[in-house]
Design brief:
This protein is of the alpha+beta class and 211 residues long. It has a domain of 140 residues: Cysteine proteinases (Cathepsin B, Chain A, Alpha-Beta Complex), CATH 3.90.70. It has 7 helices and 6 strands. The chain has a 6-stranded antiparallel β-sheet, sandwiched between helices. Strand 3 and strand 4 form a beta hairpin. The longest helix has 19 residues. The protein starts with a helix and ends in a 20-residue tail after the last strand.
Length: 211
């Protein structure tokens, strides 16, 4: 190879390496900045599907004239108060107590002309509907020995109001709760009245920085 050929070969080789190393186009722009959501807004969004029954409307489980707890009736009273039927809630609490079966409750509700919806087959879609429509549900647990209110259900957590401990909301893993509910018979019931809307909230434009 002559000196001229050698120089030309080196030049072509160098150009080829540079072409391979060079990016094919303009550099990619930096990743877009994620939208910042304020903690206060996050808290509001998390609570939109929670049934926040005021403490004044929560009834502690009472003992009926047969010496039995009245958890089924207490759970219904909670939901009627929440759904705006205070008259029916108060009348029901004054009239009924003791344990209750699904068939017995349905008969009482029908006699009262109360509108309600239920499942006795462990239909998770029913619970999702009850929470999505902000009605909540009365659900059976403890192998059918107790009934509580389901007041929230997301991907991971079930939120429970128990009339034995009405001062607080309990949080349980979703799958654990659903498994117990189904093993207890899968019964859930809720009045079909009008629940209150979510608390209003306003997002205001941030003030422009001082110049």
């Amino acid at each position: 190879m002559t000196p001229v050929q050698r120089a030309l070969f080196v030049s072509l080789l160098t150009s080829g390496i540079a072409a391979v190393a060079a990016p094919p186009g303009p550099a990619a722009p930096p990743a877009a900045t994620l939208l910042h959501v304020a903690p206060a807004v996050r808290r509001i969004v998390r609570t939109l599907r929670l049934i926040d029954i005021p403490r004044a409307w929560r009834r502690r489980n009472w003992t009926g004239d047969r010496g039995q707890g009245s958890c089924v009736h207490a759970a219904l009273v909670h939901l009627w108060h929440w759904q705006g039927r205070h008259d029916l809630a108060d009348a029901w609490a004054a009239s009924y107590g003791n344990g209750e079966t699904a068939a017995g409750l349905a008969a009482k509700l029908d006699r009262a002309g109360a509108r309600y919806a239920e499942t006795r087959a462990g239909d998770e879609g029913f619970l999702e509907w009850a929470i999505r429509t902000r009605r909540g549900a009365a659900v059976v647990v403890q192998n059918g020995a107790h009934m509580v209110n389901l007041v929230g259900l997301d991907w991971n957590v079930a939120h429970i109001l128990d009339s034995n401990f009405p001062e607080r909301i309990q949080r349980r893993p979703r799958e654990e709760f659903l498994r117990e509910w189904k093993q207890s018979g899968g019964w859930a019931v809720t009045p079909v009245e009008t629940p209150p809307p979510p608390e209003p909230w306003i997002v205001r434009e941030a003030a422009s920085p001082a110049r």
